[in-house]
Amino acid sequence: MKIEFYLNSHLVVVDVDPMQSLLHTLRGTMSHTATKEGCGEGECGACSVLFNGRLVNACMMPISQVQGGDVMTLEGLRQTEKGQCVINALLEAKGVQCGFCTPGMVLALYALLEADPNPTELAIRTAISGNLCRCTGYGMIVEAAKIAAEKGEGLW
Ligand code: FES
Ligand code: FES
């Protein structure tokens, strides 16, 4: 089935099984490998992307549901000032260790700050509650969100 959608602001067309996940379409069919596969069943958030501006688990979304929609991944977000703000904050706070959760975390923090430019610690922890990190203990990622909010003042 031909599926047409916007990927990082570019119109793309793929011809795939309509039940193939968005994640496997991105990584396998399109060789966009920034989005990671962890659990493959909606539990870890490693595969987080934005779909029509909303944070979703790409492993749980059949590509047929993406028809006509707008997908943003780390490949696109890192080209933007806001994306760089989040990435730099994660680096500054040492919120990147093995890096496996990082693409999903960047998307989750971006989605949070877009909705709430001055989030409380509770709001930050709630926003990343669907994104598992085995390395950092989350404190450094929470700190990164605070840094991104502060340094990106006026950006969000
Ligand atoms: S790989 Fe999608 S939620 Fe874990
Ligand atoms: S940095 Fe290793 S899982 Fe988060």
From TrEMBL:
It comes from the Bacteria. Gene3D superfamilies: 3.10.20.30, [2Fe-2S]-binding domain. SUPFAM superfamilies: 2Fe-2S ferredoxin-like, CO dehydrogenase ISP C-domain like. Keywords: 2Fe-2S, Iron, Iron-sulfur, Metal-binding, Oxidoreductase. Residues 1-77 form the 2Fe-2S ferredoxin-type domain. GO terms for molecular function: 2 iron, 2 sulfur cluster binding; metal ion binding; oxidoreductase activity. InterPro entries: 2Fe-2S-bd, 2Fe-2S-bd_dom_sf, 2Fe-2S_ferredoxin-like_sf, 2Fe-2S_ferredoxin-type, 2Fe2S_fd_BS, Beta-grasp_dom_sf, Diverse_Oxidoreductases. This is Aerobic-type carbon monoxide dehydrogenase CoxS. The lineage of its organism: Bacteria, Pseudomonadati, Pseudomonadota, Gammaproteobacteria, Vibrionales.
